[in-house]
Design brief:
The structure is a homodimer.
Chain A: E1 6-10, H1 15-26, E2 30-35, H2 42-52, E3 57-60, H3 66-75, E4 78-83, H4 90-95, H5 97-117, E5 122-128, H6 155-173, E6 178-184, E7 186-188, H7 207-215, E8 222-225, E9 237-238, E10 240-242, H8 243-259, E11 264-269, E12 275-276, H9 277-288, E13 294-297, E14 306-307, H10 312-318, H11 326-339, E15 349-353, E16 363-367, E17 373-378, E18 384-389, E19 392-393, H12 401-405, E20 415-416, E21 422-424, E22 427-430, E23 433-436, E24 444-446, E25 459-467, E26 470-478, E27 487-497, E28 502-512, E29 517-518, E30 522-523, E31 526-527, E32 541-544, E33 548-552, E34 558-564, E35 569-570, E36 576-577, E37 586-590, E38 605-612, E39 617-623, E40 627-631, E41 648-653, E42 669-670, E43 676-686
Parallel strand pairs in A: 1-2, 1-4, 2-3, 4-5, 5-6, 6-11, 7-10, 8-13, 9-14, 32-35
Antiparallel strand pairs in A: 9-12, 15-16, 16-17, 17-18, 18-19, 20-30, 21-24, 22-23, 25-26, 26-27, 27-28, 28-43, 29-42, 31-41, 32-36, 32-38, 33-34, 37-40, 38-39, 39-43, 40-41
Chain lengths: ~700, ~700
């Protein structure tokens, strides 16, 4: 496959789809996922961006909407399709059969029509062993070969068979089509990273997710549907396959189609090994280290005794074989479940579109939503677009994505990087190798200049709720083009603690590939604690840990001397009241902490304290960095929008121009296998 | 079934659907037909209106358009559904399988969803014996019972089976649904009236229609697909069933559902008797009295050897049995084919909507379209809305349906009835029984008054093209409410001869049910031969057969004396030139023909001659009636639309107020078992 073309993954935000997308990305495929999100969450895509380190295109499209689907085929050069989308609950399918026929069959017809009209000829289809029905109705059909006559016993299985039939019929009418029909047995487990996994909405239909929910207390006990089957322990036998094995089976099938154009063929994807429900229960209990409560109830409509796969065809033809056993699957499922007890369905968070409605690549994620401390972060620049304390916004912010991307944006809420503050003459040398950057000031580069992160799309986030009142969102930025000597991969971890009203930010950067480069990353949020009553910081009070900082020359580059900014109070003194005109600060103070490449091991030290009596609010900024720039925002006037001094910044970071100082240089150079790190916290406190 | 509710017939304009609608109407069901007309013609519905004598509601809806379909279910109270709609060509289905799956499956899902949401619970489904596939793959499965395992061998059959499955699944999920799944064997033949039949667009897929087209010369010869099957003559065996038998099977099934709510069951509809292709060929040749050319070619993809039905289940449970043999079917097919060699696809005609777009109940049918003599007739009033001679319109006409229905319409192009011209005091006696009508003039009723036909919907038409240059359109009007002593059923037959530039109109009325009433029906077209150049009849020249007519009193009622209108020339004299003011005529001339109840046996006598030198055109009016009213249109001024004298009428008919004259009375009273009749002709001739 031409790597420039897309692999379209329908239902790619679902359980099996998402695991397959991860494998596709790892194998170098460029994926575009479509999903109607009716039974899945965009969060899986967002998380996969972090897991794979690459942007994953996504379009929320229902395959039943042929117009939108056609437009997608017009807009993207699609080379192959992996078709996972479909409703999949056996029990539900008997209750609302028309819904199943409509969604599954119509969606597929539309997809095939789009492929036909756009010259797309390869498709891997997510079929199911359910098409065989009860294979025990024949003699010697367990394990089930692909040649077993079909005979699905429920509407879900019938829709799968109808779709298979359509593909066979379409192939018969036009053998330029290639179809790999994969009949899954029972997919279980999760990605070993614990980042993605199965996230059923509502009551899980399948055994393992149900057990996992019992294990984390979301369900009271496990129900075993029938123990009067003809098996060792009376419970039905299934062939459970690790979802990552299954995902890899899709890659094998896709590769097969690439080398066998014009084929239309069915392959079982299973392990060949049957496990009863109670055996599975035992394996899962072993993985979690405790015994779950369970109850035997009556048989479930549509269930059959045994569905164990004969997998020789896949082994021989696709050169693929399941590698993991059910014990491993249980361990991985348990990691996923412990890390994400509610899957992707996390209380206290939500997301809105930031740019165009429906453009999932630009969203704002809210952490602590519904609590007295909410932080809203955009993918654009990993920008803090708002912090709402006790219901009031306390940061200076813009109205929409394009304003944030506009060159007049004075780094509101921005992640500043890869190199914050100034580089003298925009040039530096590492190991005798000189780098010259495009200047953005008279003689310097400030805040990375044209390489700046603040308008770039950040990948992710992974949002979690690791404990009550705590939400985390990890964003990733991977440099694409840069004037700097190497590319960085930067993880930005936001942690919101709504009880402590604290936002902690952590930066972690590594070089991508070979070489070394510079890093100095910080956050540039402007605060106005009394924004609701007063458009400027006038009336707030300020104290700093020290009022000593770096003396700079006329070009704003440190002279090497320290100087004192005695207009501003230290923590030992009465705070300085900020007026409409005083103090005017754009000054780099020292924190008293050492300069290290990875400062995260240093203690978080409070360096800045701002309070406002009218707002009854105090903000402290704590950092692990050696300096912090304080800027009273005197030059951020934007016509009809912001006055001067609309907000105040505290930007912890490395020494200004450290890269050109023999003393501080080592704190900003990131070499292969090294990690740049930095932590800071915004700590709010209600007053009186 | 409550007779007030509708039976929805999907695909009801198609072959089997239309024959079933006829049987449903005959059994007292009120039908609404929906069809996308993709493979059928509204003409079948139009014809069925005449055949059944009732209006048949029709909506052009594709079942795949769920919004329109839902609206239909909102608008009509539907009690049951007969579901015929679907693509049905086996061979084509292998070429464009997606089209088949989409149309057949999606259409049905939408239909079932509408039923579900609107509480409609009874459906009779048009399935097919094709769902069995090749039943000879089993031992002892011929004749095929309903218990034969399914296994369709082509996409068409698979869509039928998928739909059956959906119905069974829906029934399983909600057994308030009742489904009768009818598996047809091979429907053949046509309605014995020859009015409706099978009308395949393009090349027929089935044996009989193909043979019929060979018989009328539309195809060169018959192709027999394979003579190497294991049958007596090597050709495949089918169970051919007369379409009227099949239609009656649907009624039996519908009735069964009414008495067995909550059932979902399959029934074969066949004869139980197998016939080979060559046996069928022989039977058809016998019916037409000649041997058709045929050629044996290779087998056709998807065909199987034998599909003969075991019909016991239908016989026992539905109390239904096929009554006609293949010989009768061939005879009926041949009548249909001879009467309609091109089915409903008639050259030189078309139809436009007259009222709202999509409202098939109000159309204009064009006869002789594309020839030098075109007549356009609307369902509203059976009105002649235009006659176009040599490309120029020669009749005074209105712009749209609502103008024709407006009370200011001076009977332009109208069918005037049931009683044209005046009834003195609006009252009369028949057999001593007095009738009093609502007056429309000071002391008379004119042109039937509030009972007038000219704004009523006429049923039909049946359009035919019995010979080159000749088109006929038969409309039917059946009285609904009337002040007259009985209801009439009136057939209006238009015949357009484009070579002779002649429009002949024939009226034929009978009493509906019991009683007797009056009739005097005529056409009220206003002519202006030079309309293109001159908005009035000024400049045209007039001659009449006689210039003697009925003297009337001040109330415009005949005195019993004759009088002469000597301003107008007779055929023996130089024609009278019509000026802007003279002559002013609204006078009833005598034709010299006798007054009869059914005057059609009288010779057509030319009574009126109009010519125009500028238009180079002459019109003669011929009639079988004793009188003709000539009206120079002096009172038809409509503001901004028509001047006085915009057209001239010649309205042949019975004596004015005949019903109140002992001498003429018998010519206008229609008793049970009597027929009122009248013929007239408009004969145009190009001059110079």
């Amino acid at each position: 496959m031409s790597k420039g073309k897309y692999c379209l993954v329908t239902g790619g935000s679902g359980y099996i789809g998402s695991h397959t997308v991860v494998e596709l990305c790892a194998a170098g495929y460029k994926c575009i996922v479509v999903d109607n999100l009716s039974n899945s969450s965009y969060e899986s895509i967002s998380r996969m961006e972090i897991l794979t380190g690459q942007a994953i295109e996504f379009a929320q499209i229902d395959l039943c909407d042929s117009e939108l689907l056609n437009k997608l085929f017009d807009d993207y050069e699609i080379d192959s399709v992996l078709h996972f989308a479909g409703l999949k609950a056996v029990g539900e399918s008997s209750e609302v059969p028309l819904t199943y026929y409509f969604n599954n069959v119509v969606g597929t017809i539309n997809l095939l029509n789009c492929m036909k009209s756009h010259g797309v000829r390869k498709l891997v289809f997510s079929s199911s062993a359910t098409v065989y029905g009860d294979a025990t109705r024949f003699e010697n059909m367990i394990p089930i070969p692909e040649t077993c006559p079909t005979g699905p016993t429920n509407p879900y299985g019938k829709t799968k068979l109808t779709i298979e039939d359509m593909m066979r019929d379409l192939h018969f009418s036009d053998n330029s089509f290639s179809f790999a029909i994969l009949r899954y047995f029972n997919p279980i487990g999760a990605h070993p990273s614990g980042i993605i996994g199965e996230d059923p909405l509502g009551i899980p239909n399948n055994l393992l997710p149900f057990m996992a929910q019992v294990a984390v207390g979301r369900r009271k006990k496990l129900y075993v549907f029938g123990n009067d089957y003809d098996s060792v322990d009376g419970t039905p036998i299934r062939d459970y396959i690790h979802v990552v094995d299954l995902a890899k089976g899709h890659l094998a099938a896709l590769e097969y189609l690439e080398h066998h154009p014009g084929v239309c063929r069915e392959w079982n994807l299973g392990t060949g090994k049957g496990t009863t429900v109670l055996q599975m229960y035992t394996a899962f209990c072993a993985a979690i280290g405790s015994n779950l409560e369970y109850e035997i109830t009556g048989r479930r409509e549509g269930d059959v005794l045994n569905l164990t796969a004969k997998c020789d065809r896949a082994t021989n033809e696709l050169n693929w074989k399941a590698e993991h056993d059910v014990a491993k699957a249980c361990v991985d499922l348990w990691k996923w479940t412990e890390d994400n007890p509610f899957g992707y369905q996390i209380k206290g968070t939500d997301a809105q579109f930031f740019g165009r409605a429906g453009d999932y690549s630009s969203r704002i994620v809210s952490l602590g939503k519904g609590t007295p401390f909410e932080v809203r972060i955009a993918n654009v620049g990993g920008t803090i677009v708002d912090i709402v304390v006790n219901g009031s916004s306390v940061v200076t912010s813009l109205d929409n994505e394009s304003e944030y991307k506009d060159c007049s944006n004075p780094y509101f809420g921005a992640t500043v990087g890869p190199y914050a503050n100034r580089i003298s003459n925009g040039s530096f040398e590492i190991d005798g190798k000189k780098t010259e950057l495009t200047l953005t000031e008279a003689s310097n580069v400030c805040h990375s200049g044209i390489n700046s992160y603040h308008t770039k799309k950040f990948l992710g986030p992974i949002v979690k709720n690791p404990e009550p009142h705590v939400w985390t969102a990890d964003f990733l930025h991977v440099d694409e083009e840069t004037e700097l000597p190497a590319k960085l991969s930067t993880l930005v971890k936001y942690e919101v603690n709504s009880e402590k009203k604290t936002l902690t930010i952590e930066y972690e950067s590594k070089v991508v590939g070979e070489g070394c480069t510079v890093a100095n990353i910080t956050n540039h949020t402007y605060f106005n604690l009394n924004k609701f009553n007063e458009p400027t910081i006038k009336g707030s009070k300020l104290q700093l840990v020290h009022n000593t900082g770096l003396e700079v020359n006329k070009k704003l580059i440190p002279t090497g001397n320290l100087t004192k900014f005695s207009e501003v109070a230290t923590f030992n003194n009465e705070p300085t009241e900020i007026t409409a005109t005083n103090p005017v600060l754009d000054f780099c103070f020292v924190s008293g902490l050492p300069a290290k490449l990875d400062s995260r091991s240093s203690p978080l030290k409070t360096v800045f304290r701002l309070s406002n009596e009218e707002a009854k609010l105090q903000l402290e900024v704590a950092t692990t960095e050696p300096t912090f720039q304080v800027y009273t925002g005197d030059y951020i006037h934007i016509q009809d929008k912001f006055e001067s001094r609309a907000g105040i910044c505290c930007e912890p970071g490395r020494y200004i121009d450290a890269i050109n100082s023999s003393e501080w240089k080592s704190s900003v150079i990131v070499r292969e296998n090294q990690t740049y790190g930095h932590r800071l916290a915004y700590i709010f406190k209600s007053l009186g």
